[in-house]
């Protein structure tokens, strides 16, 4: 029984690691490896965080509103952006409580998912790999909360 529990935990840790790798791919490394090789060899030196802040969205719900109502953004792109930010973080909300006992508390889990999301946003800002967007924090955290709800539902069955 103890061996099965250890094996289950190990598999869950592997699943969490894979989840974080997949999120890294979709959030930080959207383009081809060749692009990043070129970017870090030549373009990164010209980038500044100050420049990144000029393109950052720090106004809550502004990009969500833009995606929901804009005539310039296709509905498919809107669904992919909003839905992807939510769906991508559902596994974290589901896996973290199984692996980290303190994350079985709603507020601790919410804080942990927010911290992970903030880490991705800060890497984007610091490395110039995308733009910082507070709405991504909101949507990602919502996804983590949805995963936590699934965790709670699974625990009741």
List segments where confidence is low: pLDDT < 50 over at least 5 consecutive residues.
Answer: none
Number of domains: 1
- Give the beta-strand count: 0
H and E string: HHHHHHHH
What count of helical segments does DSSP give? 8
N→C terminal distance: 20 Å
Tell me the Rg in angstroms: 18 Å
Largest sheet: none
Question: Structural class, from helix and strand content?
Answer: mainly alpha
Level of helix content? over 70%
Oligomer: single chain
Strand content: under 5%
**What does the overall shape look like?**
globular
Give average pLDDT, whole number: 94
What does this structure look like?
This protein is mainly alpha-helical. The protein has one domain (2-156). 76% of the residues lie in helices and 0% in strands. The longest helix is centred in the N-terminal third of the chain and has 26 residues, at 2-27.
């Amino acid at each position: 029984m103890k061996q099965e529990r250890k094996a289950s935990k190990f598999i869950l840790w592997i699943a969490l690691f894979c989840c974080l790798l997949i999120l890294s791919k979709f959030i930080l490394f959207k383009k081809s490896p060749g692009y990043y090789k070129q970017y870090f060899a030549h373009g990164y030196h010209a980038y500044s965080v100050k420049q990144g802040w000029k393109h950052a969205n720090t106004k809550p719900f502004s990009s969500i509103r833009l995606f929901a109502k804009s005539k310039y953004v296709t509905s498919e792109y809107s669904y992919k952006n909003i839905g992807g930010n939510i769906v991508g973080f559902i596994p974290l909300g589901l896996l973290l409580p199984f692996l980290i006992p303190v994350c079985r508390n709603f507020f601790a889990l919410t804080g942990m998912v927010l911290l992970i999301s903030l880490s991705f946003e800060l890497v984007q800002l610091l490395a110039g790999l995308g733009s910082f967007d507070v709405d991504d924090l909101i949507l990602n955290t919502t996804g983590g909360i949805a995963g936590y709800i699934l965790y709670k539902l699974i625990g009741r069955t």
